[in-house]
Design a protein that fits this description.
With 263 residues, this protein is an alpha/beta fold. It is 45% helix and 17% strand. It has an 8-stranded mixed sheet with strand order 3-2-1-4-5-6-9-10, with helices on both faces. Strands 7-8 form a two-stranded parallel sheet. α1 packs across α9, α3 packs parallel to α4 and α4 runs parallel beside α5.
């Protein structure tokens, strides 16, 4: 899908990678965007930034706690009521905080599942919509194991499984909604820089910081450029990696029937 002239809803979009998505999509012709985030004060600052760079009335801010079903549902409704449509949904809100692992699951998994189903409800052709694109944000840690933050790793594996399953032909043939997965590498945001302080024990925190520190780094802008590429070119159900400041690439995950089993 070409983002030019389209309407988007992005969670966790007041700062970091989410804000980078907003700006890069607007640079590529996005018509309108809902910035959904829990941080009200930062949201207002972000709105001013967007207005100064791209003009007034390009964005609205909706204070949204994605763990609260009513608030996430209301964000979708307000977006459609305000902009008279919805084409792109990016379920970006997430935390890396194994010390609060139940909240981590609620944000990283439950809210992503709910956001995907709300996107189907509002954009699906079977519901009177015109189809669209959903991008769920996982992580390169959803493609590997890591000792220092095991619950976070599990949540990102879950996002990949969820998105690949919603990206199967059964769903697309009914809804016309494409579901993609973005797996950012280590990116220069507080989610990564403060990760070592948000683990269950100090030794896990030290191991998490060590493991993350060994991975290639990048700026949020690289992930945002990658996002535009996959929205334009990603095939339904595909999984993409953006890491180390390099071009985004698709990951091939074998299904069980294509795997060799050692005996």
């Amino acid at each position: 899908m070409d983002p030019k002239g389209k309407i988007a809803l992005i969670t966790g979009a007041a700062t970091g990678i989410g804000l980078a998505y907003v700006k890069e999509l607007l640079r590529n012709g996005l018509q309108k965007v809902s910035i959904c985030d829990l941080d009200d004060s930062r949201g207002q600052i972000t709105l001013k930034e967007i207005a100064d760079e791209f003009g007034k009335d390009k964005a609205i801010f909706i204070k949204t706690d994605v763990t609260k079903p009513d608030e996430l549902t209301a964000a979708f409704k307000k977006t459609i009521e305000t902009f008279k449509g919805l084409d792109i949904v990016i379920n970006n809100a997430g935390i890396l905080d194994d010390a609060r692992w139940e909240l981590e699951i609620a944000i990283n998994v439950t809210a992503v599942a709910r956001g995907t189903m709300l996107a189907f409800e509002h954009m699906g052709k079977d519901k009177g919509g015109k189809g669209g694109v959903v991008v769920n944000i996982a992580s390169i840690l959803g493609l590997q194991s890591m000792a220092g933050c095991p619950v976070y790793v599990a949540t990102k594996h879950a996002v990949i499984g969820l998105s690949r399953s919603f990206g199967m032909p059964f769903h697309f043939e009914r809804t016309g909604v494409i579901v993609l997965t973005m797996c950012p590498g280590v990116t220069d945001t507080p989610l990564i820089s403060e990760a070592g302080h948000r683990q269950i024990t100090s030794d896990l925190g030290e191991e998490c910081a060590r493991e993350l520190g060994a991975l290639p780094k990048q700026k949020p802008e690289n992930v945002a450029i990658s996002m535009v590429h996959i929205i334009r070119h990603g095939r339904n159900g595909s999984v993409w990696v953006s890491e180390g400041g390099k071009p985004v690439y698709e990951v091939q995950i074998p299904d069980r029937e294509n795997m060799k089993v050692s005996k």
